[in-house]
Amino acid sequence: MGRRRQTRQAPGDVPGTAGVPPRAAGRVRGRFAAAARGTGRALGRGSRSGARRVRRYTTSGGAGESGLARLVELHAVHSAGDAALAVSLAGTLFFSVPTGQARGQVALFLVLTMAPFAVVAPLIGPLLDRFRHGRRWAIGATLALRAFLAWVLAGAVGSSSAWLFPAALGCLVASRAYGVTRAAAVPRLLPTGFTLVNANSRISLAGVGGAAAGGVLAAALSRVGPDWSLRLAFLVYVAGTVLAVTLPARVDSTAGEDDLGVRGAAGTAAAGSRSGAGPGSRRDRLRTRLRALPVGVVHTLWCSVGGRLVAGFLTLYLAFLLRQHPLPGFGGPLLLGLVVAAAGLGNTLGSVAGNLLRDLAPERIALSCLVVGTLMCVATATFYSVWTVLTMGLVAGLAAQLSKLSSDAAIQRDVAESVRARVFAWSETALQIAWVVGGALGIGLPLVPQVGFGVVAAVLALVLLQAVRSRAGHALQARAPAGSPP
User: Fold this and answer.
1) Distance, CA of 79 to CA of 368 (rounded, Å)
2) Is 163 found in the same domain as 109?
3) Which of 188, 319, 356, 435 gives 312 a disulfide partner, CB atoms 3.0 to 4.6 angstroms apart?
């Protein structure tokens, strides 16, 4: 037998053309290049088509003319940066703790999550109210600060630098300050025919898309190193800073503020916050502030507290429960991941539903969410199984998102603009406290699902009662004769 001649593949040749006559190989290479160019053009056309569809959605309904579309795009960029930052720190700062850690360490983490709100509520909220004529620059400053801190973290993440934790907490504070300022600016950009729930839902949907894109890109870059995904976050925050300072000038306008969005006792809230009137104890001051707020704000805030409490409880309780007592047929990490995915899906559906439920009052939406969440906790305690746990995650995400959108809309609708930022700061602090309380219940309750979900259902029933009482109490106070004691 003769020896078969072997032809070595040239580096630039198309695979499969070794040993082919030059003319035939040229035809194959030409077809391969044409196919590659065609694929590239198709992908480019698809990307441009997708971008045009997104652009049409963000500018529809008058949002382009009013400037709301610019705020929607800014929020997408903000969410992409925060997602890239979270992915970058996931394996180096928060999730590198061993799974067998003591519950006391998790409790310490809950305390640390309150640090940003200790700054946002007493300091940043009143500061933003005082300088609301520079709201675009305030929003831009929160993004620019995170860009700087992301660059600092990129240099510190691979070492034992003392700047790691302060920079991470600084990013959390700046992110919360952004949320307060952005929410206070929405009513200035509301198109004709839009409701506040509708506008907040559109912004929230943009945040979901931005977070998904930022998380995917950061996950790809983190395979090279967490410092590279942090540099991505730096670039995204820089782009967000530019978008913030180029928002429409009406965001900074203070014309007509005394008459804009004031309902009920909002003027009383402004007067009380300026004068510092009220009893001396912190509890009495908090009670005075709640009484001064409009009824819709207090009612929806109580409903949002219930949704956030359930979210904190599920996050930590299921992490311990499914690790120690996994359900048959599912490993603990797998089922926990499915519950997280269900909660994320519910969060997205909540944004979509908020965009559709434009004719319902925020109070009715928020109360319905709290009732459904309470009933779902009762069902999970009674019929604990894989399907009830997954449904609980879906309902928790949906209810938390819808009630938060409703609470934001009530504040934007009823609170005087001169104190709106600090009311948003108070509400964010209250919601974070609710998350921490829910997480504390998840740490402290026995790992018996009937007991854990039953106790949380009882707590939610109390929150529901308080929400109804707050609405009735404000109604009685409104009917009381002038000069009568509250």
Assistant:
1) 28
2) yes
3) 435
User: Dihedral of CA 441/446/452/454: which sign?
Assistant: negative
Task: Provide the Cα torsion 68, 73, 74, 78; round to 10°.
Answer: 140
**Number of structural domains found in the chain:** 2
SS3 label, residue 383:
coil
Are 144 and 237 in contact by the 8 Å Cβ rule? The answer is: yes
pTM of the model: 0.64
End-to-end CA distance of the chain: 109
Helix spans in 223-327 (H) = 226-245, 266-275, 282-292, 295-324
Asked whether 87 and 219 are in contact (CB, 8 A), the reply is: yes
Q: How far apart are CA 74 and CA 138, in angstroms?
A: 14
Using CA atoms, how far residue 435 sits from 110, 281, 333, in Å, is: 9, 24, 22
Q: Which of 236, 192, 285, 314 is nearest to 78 (CA)?
A: 236
Quote the CA–CA distance of 264 and 258 in Å, as a whole number: 13
Confidence of residue 275 (pLDDT cuts 50, 70, 90): very low
Q: Do 247 and 154 sit in the same domain of this protein?
A: yes
pLDDT tens for 197-221 read: 778 888 888 888 888 888 888 888 8
Residue partners of 228: CB distance under 8 A and separation at least 6: 154, 221, 222
Distances (CA, A) of 139 to 142, 147, 264: 5, 13, 29
Q: pLDDT tens digits for 124-168?
A: 666 666 665 777 888 899 999 999 999 988 888 766 667 777 787
Tell me the C-alpha distance between 201 and 177, whole Å: 20
Burial of residue 57 (CB within 10 Å: 0-12, 13-18, 19+) is middle
Domain of residue 122 covers: 62-254
What is the distance between the alpha carbons of residues 331 and 451, in angstroms, rounded to a whole number?
22
Q: How many CB atoms lie within 10 A of CB 246?
A: 12
Residue 266 and residue 417 in contact, taking contact as beta carbons nearer than 8 Å: no
